[in-house]
């Protein structure tokens, strides 16, 4: 088999302006569960082994290309958005030598499942059809193209704007997803005109055109109408986001994760969560995050691109980004772990503790009001309230090293670069500017003065005036 004669290819239409979104951003880049909506059909095409997968871009092309560069093998450009039929024709050069089944997906139909597409492809092939359209029945079909049938036979698809009253009453709609025989679909598309309410080249007209040259047209109904949801405005965007959330959250709950209120728990599709983890409302888990088993995640926690171990307690309002958290840590409330934080395990970071590019050894803790940045902290270290690493001199960042078993008194500043030897003790309120050898006491505050009776005298002199 020659490289360009593989059996299945895909075209994903994503060039439209998306006028109804009323947005500067191209419609297909609006996120659903944190990912640009066109990513979902693009990933499906790849999972199904479509090669090539061609994404048709036009409106906001540069941004769409950039966001989907990893997902799609090829891009085709549609200069003017003259309709869905015209959009598919724009992908023809990329599919010039392709013979086989062409799967047509839409960048604005993100909820389709792989199972449904596999059924569509199998049906198309066993029926020997030239065109198979995926349909579904909707209670409110408004806005969608309607499937006009004569008994079992599919005659044509009529768009809402071109439909008669009788056709508008039809509840079987076009999902905008098809299996086509290629290259036949391109030949027949060239015969389609634009004499319709929108003056566009409609891809839907391929149905009637294929029939008129004696080719077989089939329709397969998707079992779950939710899968067919097309996103045209922000109300539909929110509805699709909620549907996606339900899917992700149901899968997690079935796998042994407790969600106190799944409606208000926001977990992106790539996130993994271990069994017996308990997640409270208002939690956001994003990006390439992994959470171990037996954890508790309290309300309002946000975790982005983190690896979190087992039995970790993330307390309310904490934000974790690009960090690694070992087993049995307790974080927050209101702690902020910034990128490059690594907690070895069994650590406690309390309220208003911020870390950045910091390695913190096993069992070390900072319970309140602390900033640790560009630091390496050993095991069994206790960092008192209000401790700060002064890591930035206005030009460069410098490192603080605190060895094992150091005790840092409250309100200490470490002016980096500085190194504290193992087992040392830093007196409260110190500004540490020089390295401290192991097992020492370091103190930098000036000695306390006491003037007895001073305050009483002052009061008296005020009273006289
Ligand atoms: C289309 C179908 C309609 C179907 C509905 C399902 C046509 C004529 N109508 O209508 O029957 O029920 O989808 O959601 O096909 N696009 C381009 N270039 C263009 C125009 C559109 O790439 O010139 C892309 C859009 O980016 C979008 C997709 O094609 O991803 C569908 O376009 P849209 O304008 O949303 O079509 P609908 O009116 O929803
Ligand atoms: Ca649409």
Report on this model:
The chain is an alpha/beta fold and 465 residues long. It folds into two domains: 3-228, Spore Coat Polysaccharide Biosynthesis Protein SpsA, Chain A; 251-442, 3 Solenoid (UDP N-Acetylglucosamine Acyltransferase, domain 1), CATH 2.160.10.10. The strands form five sheets. The chain has a 23-stranded parallel β-sheet that branches. The protein has a seven-stranded mixed β-sheet with strand order 5-4-1-6-10-7-11, with helices on both faces. The protein has a three-stranded parallel β-sheet with strand order 30-33-36, with no helix packed on it. The termini are far apart. The relative contact order is 0.07. Uridine-diphosphate-N-acetylglucosamine binds next to strand 1, helix 3 and strand 10.
In short:
Helix content is 19%, strand content 31%.
CATH topology of the largest domain: Spore Coat Polysaccharide Biosynthesis Protein SpsA, Chain A
How far apart, in Å, are the first and last alpha carbons? 106 Å
What gyration radius follows from the Cα positions, in whole Å? 31 Å
Ligand set: uridine-diphosphate-N-acetylglucosamine, calcium ion
* Separate helix tally: 9
CATH classification, class level of the largest domain: Alpha Beta
Q: What sort of overall outline do the alpha carbons produce when their principal axes are compared?
A: elongated
Kindly report the average pLDDT value.
Answer: 96
CATH architect. name of the largest domain:
Alpha-Beta Complex
What level of helicity do the residues show? 10-25%
Strand content: 25-35%
Number of strands: 37
Q: Which structural class do the helices and strands define? A: alpha/beta
- How many discrete structural domains? 2
Largest sheet: 23 strands, parallel
As residue ranges, the low-confidence spans are 1-6
The CATH superfamily of the largest domain appears as Spore Coat Polysaccharide Biosynthesis Protein SpsA, Chain A
């Amino acid at each position: 088999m020659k490289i360009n004669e593989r059996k299945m290819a895909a075209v994903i239409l994503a060039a439209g302006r998306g006028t109804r979104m009323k947005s500067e951003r191209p419609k297909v880049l609006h996120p659903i569960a944190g990912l640009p909506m066109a990513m979902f059909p693009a990933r499906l095409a790849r999972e199904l082994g479509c090669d090539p997968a061609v994404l048709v871009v036009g409106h906001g092309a540069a941004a769409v290309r950039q966001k989907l560069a990893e997902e799609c093998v090829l891009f085709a450009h549609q200069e003017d958005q003259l309709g869905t039929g015209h959009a598919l024709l724009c992908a023809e050069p990329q599919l010039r030598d392709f013979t086989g089944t062409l799967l047509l997906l839409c960048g604005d139909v993100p909820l389709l499942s792989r199972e449904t597409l596999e059924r569509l492809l199998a049906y198309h092939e066993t029926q020997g059809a030239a065109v198979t359209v995926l349909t579904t029945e909707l209670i409110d079909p408004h806005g969608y193209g309607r499937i006009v049938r004569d008994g079992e036979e599919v005659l044509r698809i009529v768009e809402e704007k071109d439909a008669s009253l009788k056709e508008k009453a039809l509840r079987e709609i076009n999902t905008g997803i098809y299996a086509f025989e290629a290259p036949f679909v391109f030949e027949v598309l060239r015969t389609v005109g634009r004499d319709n309410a929108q003056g566009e080249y409609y891809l839907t007209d391929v149905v009637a055109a294929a029939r008129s040259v004696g080719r077989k047209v089939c329709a397969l109904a998707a079992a779950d109408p939710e899968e067919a949801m097309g996103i045209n405005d922000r109300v539909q965007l929110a509805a699709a986001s909620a549907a996606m959330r339900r899917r992700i959250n149901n899968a997690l709950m079935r796998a042994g994760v407790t969600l106190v209120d799944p409606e208000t728990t926001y977990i992106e599709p790539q996130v993994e969560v271990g069994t017996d983890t308990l997640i409270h409302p208002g939690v956001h888990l994003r990006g390439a995050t992994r959470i171990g088993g037996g954890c508790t995640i309290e309300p309002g926690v946000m975790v982005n691109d983190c690896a979190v171990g087992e039995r970790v307690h993330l307390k309310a309002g904490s934000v974790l980004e690009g960090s690694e958290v070992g087993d049995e840590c307790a974080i927050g409330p209101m702690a902020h772990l910034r990128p490059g934080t690594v907690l070895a395990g069994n650590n406690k970071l309390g309220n208003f503790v911020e870390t950045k590019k910091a390695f913190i050894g096993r069992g070390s803790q900072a319970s309140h009001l602390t900033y640790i940045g560009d630091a390496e902290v050993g095991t069994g270290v206790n960092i008192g309230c209000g401790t700060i690493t002064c890591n930035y001199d206005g030009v460069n960042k410098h490192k603080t090293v605190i060895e094992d078993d150091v005790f840092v008194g409250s309100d200490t500043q470490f002016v980096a670069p500085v190194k504290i030897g193992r087992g040392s003790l830093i007196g409260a309120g110190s500004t540490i500017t020089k390295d401290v050898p192991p097992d020492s006491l370091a103190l930098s505050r000036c000695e306390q003065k006491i003037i007895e009776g001073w305050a009483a005298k002052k009061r008296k002199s005020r009273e006289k005036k």
